[in-house]
């Protein structure tokens, strides 16, 4: 199966106001937390370790650049079923009819009520990106989650040390400073700068817990060759083995795809046709016989 040409989305802004709001907050928080870590936390926590501090700067920039570029790839890559392949006649028995589009669509393609189009290998509609996760941007989504987890985990650890050095948390009123930062500031219990630090610390904890759960779910489905629909109906129809399942998401060059999102890693499937577990096993058996 050859690869299908990747296209870019013509409309990048989400259609729903709640998604637009979440997107704006996300685009503000990511660089804000990065700048806070680089210019406030690192110089304080690693002040006595200048060499290690420089290493953290380099690694931090690498993680941040991957978060940003994977997010860009996620929201700019078109995942919908191309109009030229949609047909009122059924190309094969695996294709299914979409009542909304009034057309037959490829297997593993599902209609999104928010995007109002059918999506190739649809996993789910992402609230943060305001678009669907499908065949061509699934790689970006998983790598975005991986680097967010790495980044927020580091932030939580370093900010814990930072807050212990700069904020008095060994008092009975410490929970008040964390749970109600605005109240703590307005009542003079803590300074504005310290409360902002605490607020970012809480945000990082929430992001770490939320993205860790999503990443765990995505990795489990990826290793089983599933998308959300397959998991819901407990289907393993497209389970081709762990290695091939990873390639179906990250591409044939999956071993370097993690370094940077725009490293070429062509997908083995074109999004229109899919090997099932049975047809893939037959193909592997034929390949093994040829090599004997």
Automatic annotation (TrEMBL):
It catalyses: L-cysteinyl-[protein] + hexadecanoyl-CoA = S-hexadecanoyl-L-cysteinyl-[protein] + CoA. PROSITE patterns: DHHC. It is a multi-pass membrane protein. It comes from the Eukaryota. Keywords: Acyltransferase, Membrane, Transferase, Transmembrane, Transmembrane helix. Its EC number is 2.3.1.225. Residues 93-232 form the Palmitoyltransferase DHHC domain. The keyword Transmembrane helix applies. The chain crosses the membrane at residues 20-42, 54-76, 140-163, 198-216. InterPro entries: Palmitoyltrfase_DHHC, PFA4/ZDH16/20/ERF2-like. It is found in: Membrane. The keyword ATP-binding does not apply. GO terms for molecular function: protein-cysteine S-palmitoyltransferase activity. GO terms for cellular component: membrane. It is an enzyme of class 2 (transferase). Belongs to the DHHC palmitoyltransferase family. The DHHC domain is required for palmitoyltransferase activity. This is Palmitoyltransferase. The lineage of its organism: Eukaryota, Metazoa, Ecdysozoa, Arthropoda, Hexapoda.
